[in-house]
Amino acid sequence: MTHNKIQELTVEWKSPSNLAIVKYWGKRDVQFPLNPSISFSLKNAVTTTRVTAKPSEQGGFTFSLDGNMKETFNKKIANLLQLSSSTLPFITTHHLTIESSNTFPHSSGIASSASSMSALALCLADLQLLVDNEPNHNLDIKKVSELSRLGSGSAARSLYGGWTIWGETTAIADSSDNYAVELPNIHPNFMQIANAILIIEPKSKKVSSSQGHALMNNHPYGAARIKQANDNTELLLEILESGDWNKFFDIAENEALSLHALMMSSNPGYTLLHPNSLKVIEEVRKARLEQNLPVGFSMDAGPNVHLLYPKYEEAKILPWIENTIRPLCHQHNIIFDELGEGPERTDINY
Ligand code: PMV
Questions:
Q1: What burial letters (b/e) apply to 285-304, b meaning 16+ CB within 10 Å?
Q2: Residue of the CA atom closest to atom 4 of ligand 1
């Protein structure tokens, strides 16, 4: 019994969700993106995952979220474990107890697959180091990003603090479809980006992101989308260096609206916007034009809207959010977040 106890290994990692400004939409094979995407890591929206590995000839795993067994996620986890087992052989010789918790509500429109799959990939890569007797936790982050990608594409971008690019582009020398890399040369303005997540409609999404990506196969605007995303990537890289908020909002909004336009024009077509999503969009544009407020928006594949603004201007923005925007949210619900510093390992006393 004591013998088994000694062989049990536990690691715990906290990893953030991220918000893409240039969107990943459409994939080939096992989560290779059709276009490059650029995102920043969030600070408060994080998943904490603890994995305990116990030697077992059968392998296998159990998964719980906030202390409850959650079978809905088992398929995604089993898939990641299976795809990782060639690079992380301990997976086939250990039973894994995976315990996760999120700081944000499920179905809040925050991508929980990005934080949860990256937290799990970090734990798995770290456990392999421990099994191999390399206890210094010296992880190869590109490799972990690649593992995360196998779990969920957007998770590849959660391994770094600040700004990240995933997907090959000639504009960034070490960019890759396999993994994400950190973006250098970010203007200090954009290291202080704030994100107010407006809960417009908390019900689960009508289209899963896997279904959504599949809609890009044979999409009538497929080739044009790939060109648009590559052009927006190049433009955004310049803007992130120059610090120009208005140009930044133009790209963020163009990407968000294009994502929804692509969903509407696919076959079958989906309308994921809620009437209040449209009202918010109108108010954001009015605030920028009429009140000169430095605020813009992004959206993922759902009705919730992400307001974007400089944290150092929040004294100007927050009263407008409270008066004009909060009444448009479901039960007046808003989650405030901002750019974060990336994953963190919990020190566990063995
Ligand atoms: O990682 P997935 O398969 O959940 O895809 C995420 C897709 C978007 O959130 C809509 C865009 C993105 O780049 O995060």
A1: eebbeeeebbbbbbbbbbbb
A2: 209
